[in-house]
Write a structure and sequence with these properties.
2 copies of one chain form a homodimer. Chain A is an alpha/beta fold. Chain A has 10 helices and 9 strands. The first copy, chain A, has a 9-stranded mixed sheet with strand order 1-2-3-5-4-6-7-8-9, with helices on both faces. Chain A binds chain B through residues 9-13, 16, 64-65, 67, 69-70, 221, 223, 254-256, 258-261, 263-264, 267, and chain B through 9-13, 16, 64-65, 67, 69-70, 221, 223, 254-256, 258-261, 263-264, 267. Chains A, B: Keywords: Hydrolase, Serine esterase.
């Protein structure tokens, strides 16, 4: 699998790099970014946290705004930030920001015309890790995190692949997409009207079903504009209580949905993942 | 002086806020951003670091990308980020990024048509601090910092107003604008061809003339694309050597001109300013 370098910049003694590559899973060219800590070498491959961004984002939002590299460099953790959907002129789009490009919802679409490109689940769980592990000084030890739509992605992907990840975290996740406008619109377009398939892409439903879920840390601001209508953390909290799982949902007073919020608590999340990545 | 709130977000226990206001100095409406650390209150006014951004920037680049708030919150320092030029439909512009809007060069233009609005020097040294000190829980104790064009701005403004600031710092400053294309183009347009007026806006010239300059910290990446042609730190280093001043210029191996570089060393700069702000 060939990848092509787009940019690189030194940061906190490590490197931020962007690449483009042909994606078989998505049937288009994709861009991703990786942060490599200073101690990452072939003889010292480091673990990886995959970061899934929210609606409208690319690989750049987290890398430029989260302020994550100080702690990632200190802990010796690589971070990979993929794009949020397939891209390109022949990829189906929607006129609104919450469907189509920038809104892949980290699932495999089964409905035409979306099913031609929208296979973000396969991309994140299979194709991208294979690329990362064959091209960079990283190990196959990984955790997954994300924000909003990407928080939904991190929790659903992590719960469905508990052998592949060590831990899950999320900021302001769409916790119960079956019950909110963003999720209902996306699931209807991508998955059709079969509610059984929706349940396989809903963080709260999956957590309810999970027997022994991975450790999960969630931060949610209580001044988040999307809290009541779209994010619905109460469903996730209720699901966590149905069994004795290691799920912590923290309500953070006064914080909103922005990267200012993420930057405040990202060090906590990296330390949480480090506990599970370095055992 | 009335200011109008545009946004606010909690970050590291403090607040990032954006405002708009009518500027008398610039004869247009301006936007600025302020970070207030959690300990800033009327009974505990905190010192301020003014941050001057580079070409093409607004108040947002530093606030979103520098990762400065963790340390600023810990130290108890407010940060103010103004825009980089006057703005608005009736403000003269240039078709290139290095003159006109986004490129005010932190000086008072004397040449038509620029002199109608381009008085960033007066705005930064007089009008904006008066607004900040009358509207927020801050003291009149301040330092000044900036990047590239804003590094030029911080050093020139700091050296010319040593009673007003405690310390100066810069990332990748345009150190000798009289001798580089960016500076020559801007000075010719804004100041005309009188070289005497150019010398009053050139960091290296001002440092050469200074009797007892404020403490200055400069970081410069040696992988910066603009280093040889535009930034010319050697002139500043030579000027620092002409007298026994507290000027430290650090060449940072492998770093470029981006905010990845700034984010790596911004905590050093805030700690440097704190030493002088809290005496």
């Amino acid at each position: 699998m060939t990848i092509e370098s787009l940019s690189q910049a030194k940061v906190f003694g490590g490197w931020h790099k962007q690449y483009t590559h042909e994606s078989r899973a998505l049937n288009c060219n994709m861009r991703f970014a990786i942060f490599l800590p200073p101690n990452a070498t072939k003889s010292n491959p480091v673990p990886v946290v995959y970061w899934l961004s929210g609606l409208t984002c690319t690989d750049e939002n987290f890398m430029q705004k989260a302020g994550a590299f100080r702690m990632a460099a200190e802990l010796g953790i690589a971070i990979v930030a993929p794009d949020t959907s397939p891209r390109g002129d022949d990829v189906t789009d929607d006129e609104n920001y919450d469907l189509g490009k920038g809104a892949g919802f980290y699932l495999n679409a089964t409905q035409e015309p979306w099913s031609r490109h929208y296979h973000m689940y396969d991309y994140i769980t299979k194709e991208l890790p294979a690329i990362i592990e064959s091209n960079f000084p990283v190990s196959d030890v990984k955790s997954i995190s994300g924000h909003s739509m990407g928080g939904h992605g991190a929790i659903t992907i992590g719960l469905k692949n508990s052998d592949q990840y060590r831990s899950i975290s999320a900021f302001s996740p769409i916790s119960n997409p079956m019950q909110c406008p963003w999720g209902q619109k996306a699931f209807t377009a991508y998955l059709g009207t079969d509610i059984k398939s929706w349940k396989q892409c809903d963080a709260s439903e999956l957590l309810k079903q999970a027997k022994s879920p991975l450790p999960i840390l969630v931060d949610q601001g209580d001044a988040d504009n999307f809290l009541a209508e779209q994010l619905k953390p109460e469903a996730l909290i209720a699901a966590a209580k149905t069994h004795d799982s290691a799920v912590e949902v923290r309500m953070q007073s006064g914080y909103d949905h922005s990267y200012f919020f993420i930057s405040t608590f990202i060090a906590d999340h990296l330390n949480f993942h480090a506990k599970h990545l370095f055992v």
